[in-house]
Specification:
By secondary structure, the chain is an alpha/beta fold. It is 44% helix and 17% strand. The longest helix is centred in the middle third of the chain and has 31 residues.
Length: 397
């Protein structure tokens, strides 16, 4: 319930009442039972509430019937998340991805609330707003628009792929920050990079991925990527639409899973993030190594903090930190560098003139030994399986 209220407040909705209901049997017409709907209608009337948010997935029929029964505009969890994304998307790509997700969701709705984008307000018109011109959008129009957006996103995907190929040829490893929304990814990103990307105590403060370079022990340059936060029951339309963005995560050399250890549902949040990563194929063999940053330890009691540090000491893949105070960040930098250096040791011989490849090996791996033998350089290099495969691809290109 708190998360649902937080999602609503993230776009300025004033939550006047909230209540959980036990659904013993799903009613096809209204989802909830008759008495429950009457109670909601009475609460809405007493509070003069014009919007009802149902923190579940509603069918078009259920949405329409609930609106008639309660006298309020009704949106479900998917509609609310899409509305937030519609307001927050800052780049052309982000707006396209959100619009595609919205149209996919809207195509089956009886209530046509799709609007053109030439409006003063962000979002998609679920909630109304000044300067809004709503139109009756038939399915052909929606299908045509979706086809056009998919073509544009395919072009974005090709461009991203070219950029990734260029980055892989360049001698810099990539670290992607992933985690539940509001876990502190952008705050950590700002701490490590000295940047000022938008970081607020809001759900989905970050939508568009940002990349900056940082220095780690033994690495002159590492690319750090801040990504969109995950949430439980993330709409499938959004996962599909943001696949081009989330593919950045798949191509990273290391994933840092940020966790809010002060949150009462931190284990459930962890499982939700793992589910999304699994849907992206990031639990398969060859996926990037993973490190957990246990954030917001400054908000824990002394007893909780000691217990958490004791647990972290027994694990190699965990670093307790506070992105706000800076506690534990030196240890995190050290662990990230160690993770990037793991892998088998390979003996490599290169012509002395291959300076680019030699520099690539120094940046992407741990060069244990380097000898010059006439016009050849012999290197003993520790490389991760991914980077060894990339190096072999460079050699055969």
């Amino acid at each position: 319930m708190e998360e649902a209220a937080g999602l609503a407040e993230a776009i300025g909705i004033d939550v006047v009442a909230s209540k959980p209901f036990r659904v013993r049997s799903v009613r096809p017409a209204t989802l909830l039972g008759k008495g429950q709907v009457e109670e909601i209608a009475e609460t809405a009337k007493d509070a003069d509430a014009r919007l009802l948010i149902v923190d579940a997935a509603l069918t078009p029929v259920q949405q329409k019937n609930l609106e008639e029964e309660t006298g309020a505009k009704v949106i479900d969890r998917t509609g609310l998340i899409l509305e937030i994304f519609g307001e927050r998307a800052a780049t052309a790509e982000g707006r396209l991805q959100v619009e595609l997700a919205h149209l996919d969701y809207q195509a089956g709705r009886l209530v046509r609330s799709w609007t053109h984008l030439e409006r003063q307000r962000g979002g998609f018109g679920f909630l109304g707003g000044p300067g809004e011109t709503q139109i009756e959008a038939d399915r052909r129009l929606i299908r045509d628009r979706m086809a056009k957006i998919r073509r544009e996103l395919d072009q974005v995907k090709r461009t991203r792929s070219l950029h990734r190929d260029r980055r892989q040829r360049a001698p810099w490893p990539v670290i992607a920050l992933v985690g539940y929304t509001n876990a502190g990814k952008s705050t950590l990103f700002n701490r490590l990079t000295g940047e000022e990307v938008f970081a607020e105590n809001l759900l989905f403060a970050t939508l568009d991925p940002t990349m900056r370079d940082i220095r780690l022990p033994g690495f002159d340059k590492v690319i750090l990527s801040d990504t969109v936060g995950f949430v439980s029951d993330l709409p499938t339309e959004l996962i599909a639409a943001f696949r081009a963005t989330l593919e950045e995560v798949r191509e990273a050399d290391l994933l840092v899973h940020m966790r809010d250890m002060s949150h009462p549902d931190r284990e459930a949040q962890h499982d939700d993030v793992e589910d999304v990563l699994q849907s992206l194929g990031l639990s398969e063999q060859g996926a990037p190594p993973r490190l957990e940053a246990w954030n917001k330890v400054d908000l824990l009691s002394q007893e909780e903090r000691e217990r958490l540090y004791g647990e972290a000491d027994r694990r190699e893949d965990v670093v307790p930190i506070s992105a706000i105070t800076g506690a534990g960040l030196d240890a995190l930098r050290q662990r990230m560098a160690e993770c990037l250096r793991t892998g088998e040791v390979h003996q490599i011989r290169l012509p002395a003139g291959e300076g680019g490849k030699i520099a690539w090996l120094h940046a992407r791996g741990e060069v244990l030994d380097q000898q010059l033998d006439h016009d050849e350089v012999q290197l003993s290099v520790r490389l991760s399986p991914d980077n060894w495969a990339r190096f072999q691809a460079m050699e055969s290109a």
